[in-house]
Amino acid sequence: MRSHHWPERLGQSLNALFLALLAIVMIFPVYYVVVVSFTDPGEYLRKRIVLFPENWSLEAYRYLLSTPAFPRSLGNSAFLAVAGTLLSLAVSASLSFALSQKQFQFRRAIMLLILLTILFNPGIIPNYLLVRELGLINSIWALILPSLANGWTVLLLKNFFDSLPAELVESASIDGCGVLRTWFSIVLPLSLPALAAFGLFFAVGYWNQFFSALIYLNEADKWPIQVLLQNMLLSASNVDLVAPGEQIEAPPTEMLKMAAIVTAIAPIAVVYPFLQKHFAKGALVGSVKG
C-alpha cells in the first residue's frame, strides 16, 4: 500500500517545491524594490545590495514629496483614476442598461455600431485627429473623454443587466416608477458587485495611463505618475526631481526610483482588497434577500 502511494506523494512534493520556487522568483523583485526604498541612504551607499536593512528610513519618500513634480503627478493620476472611473461607470452602465431594455427601439442599431468598434480598431492616427479636432490636445481630459466606454465593457454589462429578473422592472413600472427611478432605486443597488469589479478595472486603467499621455500631453505639469516614473527610470540622475532650494539632501538616485515605483503601485494595491469581496458576490443577492 505504501509503495503504491509514494509516486503520488513524490509528484505532489515536486509540484509544491516548483510552486514555492516560482513564488520566490516572482515575489523577490517586489520585495527588493520595497526594501531598498525604505533603506537608510548611508547604508545603501555602503552596501549597494541590501536584502535585510539594519536601519529603516523614509528619506527617499520625504525627498520625493518635497519636490514639486512628484506630488503634482500623483495628483494628476488621482484625478484621472477618480474622475475617469466615475464617468466611465456612469456612461457604460447607463448605456448598457438602456440596451438591455427590449422596448428601446434603436438598440439593435447601437449594438451593431458597438460591435463594429470591437472588430475594427481605428488606430492611433484617427484617435489623435479626433482628439485634436475636439481641442483636447495638452488637456488631461484627452485621457478620459475618448475612453469613457469600450465595446467589451458595454457588452458584458448588458449581459449582466439581461440576467436580472424582468419581473423586478415590471413590478416597479406597475407601482408607478419611471425609468430613472427604477434605474437608481432598483437596478443600481443590485448592480453594485458588477460595478465594483468594472470600477476596479477602470481605476487601474486610468491610473496606469502612459502611452496616451505621451501622445496628447505636451507639458510636464500635466503628466500622470507613470510618465514621470518612466522619465525617472531612464534618467541617470534625479535632475527632474529637485527639491526647492535643496532643503533636503537628495538620497541616491536608485533609492528614489524604488520609492517612486512603490508609490505608483501602492494605491491600487491598497484599494484592491476592499473591492475583491464584491467579485464573488452573486448579482441577485439583494433581490433574493428582499
UniProtKB/TrEMBL annotation:
Signal peptide (from-to): none
Keyword Disulfide bond recorded: no
SUPFAM superfamilies referenced in this protein's UniProt entry, alphabetically: MetI-like (SSF161098)
PROSITE patterns: ABC_TM1
Pfam families: BPD_transp_1
PANTHER family attached to this UniProt entry: ABC TRANSPORTER PERMEASE PROTEIN MG189-RELATED-RELATED, POLYGALACTURONAN_RHAMNOGALACTURONAN TRANSPORT SYSTEM PERMEASE PROTEIN YTCP
Name of the protein described by the UniProt record: Carbohydrate ABC transporter permease
Organism for this UniProt entry: Paenibacillus thailandensis
Highest classification ranks of the organism: Bacteria, Bacillati, Bacillota, Bacilli, Bacillales
